[in-house]
């Protein structure tokens, strides 16, 4: 006998549903499900399912909200025989059945290759009941989208493709949203995505945004009075581009990714000299404050030397920003963004970006905890520097995809990361600048007693400050190491 199946389906965030239900204080019954299809098309499906210890054959006709369904229990032998005839994929999942608010909610959490895929189904007695239904607030918190009418998210479609579908936004619409920004001088990436946006569209949107920042700062350097901040933001945007290629590595073609990582590294090297000079010139007043008054004017010779070098370096910078290597790479990356094809991308880029983002964030976060806990006051400066890079990459990633996260938890996590990054950054600056000052002291232009005395005293003070930064790091990292619950709340929204 046939029955009508009236059902609405909701796509949920890719997090532990067991943890979610526990947090909300909801009881549930769990059952393991295995199923496959001998027929699965737009007009109907022949499904075989192992539901706990039962074996069920179901014939379904229609699609969307209302479908005709005929179900019979079969033997294990018939099930296994049908399974041998199956040429598609076998779906495995855990169903958690929850009674809440006068409804039965069935939450399916799928196993590989759909790990992270959570689907909520609610059945109704009538079409009117289904249309009048409003999802309870506790589920709205983790809702991605309703997919009742989206055939890509039916189990039959999943068994045919055996890959998780995305919910794509047109690239032109994403770029139009980006272009609404008042200016692009700051290397921020305030792009709003839905959690199931395709990886390809998400990374193209981010690359596009960062290229706009590079372009805006290049034009400001070329056509306005030079400001060190413009070069700084241009380089931050390039650094973020390289971080994106590294962090979202599985979404890119290896050859394409490596080629453009190297080209961006070349652009960074060519613009690095002027940035270093800018940093030292900006630091001179602070350096003087670190010295006794009788040694402060000993840095005047260093300032004069750097000012002269800056004039020469700026000319080289302006020439480079107008050169073919620079502009061709920017143009090539813009073409990548606008190309609807998958050139430069892997097959995985068609899937939902949230799955890749969560995996990358968890991996980086665990690495930071492991490295940070291993550091002590006697660790090598390079070990502190490598941790700083990891912290910076984690910060970049959560900023790239901030629209996917719980806002309060995101703000708190970002604040913690910025604090750690700031301490490690100051530690690294002290280490690098001390070494660089030692090299500068060998220059004939700086060979006078007062300058040498000032540089030596400055390096001693820097060494003491570096030790203080290590102590400050230990105290701060102890607090950061307790952020696991906050991290989970950020990426899972609960």
UniProtKB/TrEMBL annotation:
Ranges in coiled-coil conformation: 448-475
Highest taxon listed in the record's lineage: Bacteria
Pfam families: CHAD
Keywords: Coiled coil
Domain CHAD: 195-486
Domain CYTH: 3-159
Record keyword GTP-binding present: no
Name of the featured protein: CHAD domain-containing protein
Species in which this protein is naturally found: Hydrogenimonas thermophila
């Amino acid at each position: 006998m046939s029955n009508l199946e009236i059902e609405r389906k909701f796509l949920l965030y890719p997090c532990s549903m067991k943890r979610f239900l526990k947090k909300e204080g909801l009881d549930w019954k769990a059952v393991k499900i295995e199923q496959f299809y001998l027929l699965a098309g737009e007009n109907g499906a022949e499904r075989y399912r192992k539901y706990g210890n039962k074996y069920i054959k179901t014939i379904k006709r229609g699609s969307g909200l209302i479908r005709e369904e005929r179900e019979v229990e079969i033997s294990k032998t018939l099930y296994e025989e049908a399974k041998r005839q199956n040429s598609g994929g076998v779906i495995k999942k855990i169903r958690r059945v929850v009674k809440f608010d006068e409804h039965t909610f069935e939450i399916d959490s799928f196993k590989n290759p759909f790990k992270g895929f959570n689907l909520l189904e609610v059945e109704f007695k009538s079409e009117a009941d289904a249309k009048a239904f409003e999802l309870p607030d506790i589920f709205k918190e983790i809702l991605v989208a309703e997919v009742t009418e989206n055939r890509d998210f039916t189990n039959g479609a999943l068994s045919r493709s055996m890959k998780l579908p995305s919910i794509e936004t047109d690239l032109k619409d994403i770029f139009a949203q980006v272009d609404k920004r008042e200016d692009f001088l700051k290397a921020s990436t305030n792009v709003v995505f839905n959690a199931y946006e395709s990886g390809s569209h998400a990374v193209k949107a981010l690359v596009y945004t960062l290229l706009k920042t590079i372009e805006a700062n290049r034009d400001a350097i070329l056509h306005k009075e030079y400001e060190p901040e413009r070069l700084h933001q241009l380089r931050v945007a390039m650094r973020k581009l390289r971080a994106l290629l590294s962090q979202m590595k599985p979404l890119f073609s290896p050859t394409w990714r490596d080629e453009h990582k190297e080209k961006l590294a070349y652009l960074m090297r060519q613009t690095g000299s002027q940035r270093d000079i800018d940093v030292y010139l900006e630091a001179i007043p602070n350096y003087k404050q670190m010295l006794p008054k009788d040694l402060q004017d000993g840095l005047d010779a260093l300032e004069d030397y750097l000012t002269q070098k800056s004039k020469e370096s700026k000319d080289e910078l302006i020439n480079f920003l107008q050169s073919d290597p620079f502009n061709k790479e920017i143009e090539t990356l813009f073409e990548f963004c606008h190309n609807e094809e998958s050139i430069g991308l892997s097959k995985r880029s068609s899937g939902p970006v949230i799955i890749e983002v969560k995996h990358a964030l968890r991996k980086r976060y665990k690495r930071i905890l492991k490295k940070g806990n291993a550091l002590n006051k006697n660790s090598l400066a390079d070990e502190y520097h490598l941790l700083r890079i990891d912290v910076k990459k984690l910060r970049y990633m959560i900023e790239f995809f901030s629209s996917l996260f719980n806002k309060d938890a995101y703000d708190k996590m970002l604040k913690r990361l910025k604090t750690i990054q700031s301490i490690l950054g100051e530690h690294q600056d002290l280490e690098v600048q001390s070494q660089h000052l030692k090299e500068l002291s060998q220059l004939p232009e700086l060979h006078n007693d007062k300058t040498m005395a000032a540089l030596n005293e400055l390096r001693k003070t820097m060494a003491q400050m570096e030790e203080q930064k290590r102590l400050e790091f230990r105290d701060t990292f102890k607090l950061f190491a307790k952020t696991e619950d906050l991290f989970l709340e950020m990426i899972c929204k609960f």
